[in-house]
Structures are given as structure tokens and as C-alpha cells.
Write a structure and sequence with these properties.
The chain has about 280 residues and is an alpha+beta fold. The protein is about 25% helix and about 35% strand. The chain has 2 domains: about 70 residues, no CATH class; about 210 residues, no CATH class.
Length: about 280
């Protein structure tokens, strides 16, 4: 009974916590921007900036190429990402309202199921239509992967993993060979027929954030750019390719993702606390 109530209360509070999370993230971002010191040139280390939030644009470099050894992928990049997608049935619903013979309002929800490429496995165990329950399968189990340059530099400073994880990877990297049982099509590796995918098929693609000019908003500590911890406890840093303004270095997508992560973290802590009682 406690578990069922906990699940219900958790779902019911998700939206509220997410809204609160958005406010927390916005507060942390504004705090960080207000404290930021714009640095025109980072070619020489400045000890007076240690412990401060800096905003700067410079060439980011890495001495070693990043590799995904499982697929033979290599790139001169700051970040290399393996993207995994699954061809799965996805449940969608639509609700219509009408009146019955007694003039009372009633609603009818219709569920439809179409296979599509998904960035995560979709559990079909709780589909409303019994005909589709348990239909989703996966041919191969492959993990998403993000490889970060460990020796990345930004002028005279080092770039931490936390900062580089926030740098968007948008450059497609084409695979040159496919593992046994897979094939290459449209710059991706398919476990299945790319022209006529079936539920359970998997496809893998690769993107990178190349070395070059980037803009960073982060805390400088001991000659290394890293996450800043705001007064409300949130840790954050931002990085974008090219030269962008301080207002553009933080995107709407960044805010949404951080708010969602903050909400999930808050709920996870609440569940752990309840289960210990």
C-alpha cells in the first residue's frame, strides 16, 4: 500500500517539482551571469581570476584524437558521442468528448500504436491495448557513450569534463565499418534492415564537438574551468561552439534539461527518504 501511494504521490508532484526546478535553474543562471567576468584573452593565466566565474571565447584544443574502439570511430574532437536508437512501438492517446443519451458529458480515450525510432527503449508492458503489450523487443543491447578529451585546453587553462559535457556535439562522424550482423546506411550502423525496419531493430550513429573556437561560462579554479555551485546548491557551467554572447551561451534547451534533471533528482531523494521510513 505504501509503495502504491508513493508512486501516485510521486507522479502527482512531478509537474510541480519540475516548475520549481525551472525557477531554481533560472535563479542559478542569473546569479552566475551577474558574477561573470568577461575575459578578452585567455592565452596567459591570470591568478587574480582564480575562484571567479569567467566568460570567454578562445580556441579549445586536444592533443589526442577521441576514439570509440568498439566501432573503429576516431575524431579530432573535444567530445565524441555514440547515439543509440531503437525501433519501438510508441503509445499515443487522443481523447474526445460527447454527451450520452441522458445528456451527461463523457469522454473516450483512444490509444494508437505506431513503430518509430526512439532514443530509449520503450516498455510495452503497460500499454493499454493488450494486443501490443510485450511487443517491444531489442535485437542488441548497446549503451550510449560520451567520450571526453582529458587533455583539453582553453588558452592557458584546462577544460574539465563537466564543462565539456555541456558542449553540443553536432558534427556527424560517418562509420567506415560495421560489426558482424550489421550494415551501414545513411551514415549510420543498422542492426536490421534500414530500408524496412522492424520493431526491435537498433541503429547507431556518431557525432562530435570538434576542436576549435568555443565560448565558455564557468568557474575558474586552480587554472581549470569547471562547474560553478550556486547559492541554491545547483552546479552548472556552459559551453557553446563559436563566439556567442553571454545571453546566448545559455539556451532554452539547457534550462529545460537542467530543470528536468533537478526535478528527477528531487523526486529520487524524496522516494529514498520515504522508503527508509
Amino acid at each position: 500500500m505504501k509503495t502504491a501511494f508513493l508512486a501516485f504521490s510521486t507522479i502527482a508532484s512531478l509537474c510541480l517539482v519540475s516548475c520549481i526546478g525551472t525557477g531554481r535553474v533560472n535563479d542559478a543562471v542569473e546569479e552566475m551571469k551577474l558574477k561573470a567576468v568577461e575575459v578578452e584573452n585567455v592565452d596567459k593565466a591570470d591568478s587574480s581570476l582564480d575562484g571567479k566565474v569567467i566568460f570567454a571565447t578562445a580556441d579549445a584544443k586536444a592533443n589526442k584524437a577521441l576514439t570509440d574502439e568498439a566501432y573503429g570511430i576516431s575524431a579530432n574532437a573535444l567530445r565524441l558521442v555514440r547515439i543509440v536508437e531503437y525501433y519501438q512501438y510508441v503509445e499515443k492517446s487522443s481523447t474526445s468528448s460527447s454527451k450520452n443519451d441522458q445528456g451527461q458529458a463523457q469522454s473516450v480515450t483512444t490509444y494508437t500504436y505506431e513503430p518509430e525510432w526512439s532514443s530509449s527503449k520503450v516498455s510495452s508492458d503497460f500499454f493499454h491495448d493488450d494486443a501490443y503489450k510485450g511487443k517491444n523487443t531489442v535485437k542488441v543491447d548497446i549503451e550510449r557513450q560520451s567520450v571526453i578529451a582529458e587533455d583539453a585546453t582553453f588558452g592557458a587553462y584546462a577544460l574539465s569534463k563537466d564543462v565539456l559535457e555541456n558542449l553540443p556535439a553536432n558534427e556527424d562522424i560517418a562509420p567506415v565499418r560495421a560489426p558482424e550482423g550489421a550494415q551501414i546506411a545513411d551514415g549510420k550502423i543498422y542492426y536490421g534492415n534500414p530500408a524496412s525496419p522492424e520493431v526491435g531493430d537498433v541503429r547507431v550513429s556518431f557525432v562530435a564537438a570538434p576542436v576549435g573556437k568555443i565560448t565558455v561560462l564557468a568557474l575558474l579554479k586552480d587554472k581549470k574551468l569547471c562547474d560553478y555551485t550556486a547559492q541554491n546548491g545547483l552546479t552548472l557551467s556552459f559551453a557553446k561552439a563559436g563566439k556567442v554572447s553571454i545571453s546566448d551561451v545559455v539556451s532554452t534547451v539547457d534550462i529545460i534539461e537542467m530543470s528536468a534533471n533537478d526535478a528527477v533528482s528531487s523526486i529520487g531523494k524524496a522516494i529514498t527518504k520515504e522508503l527508509k521510513l
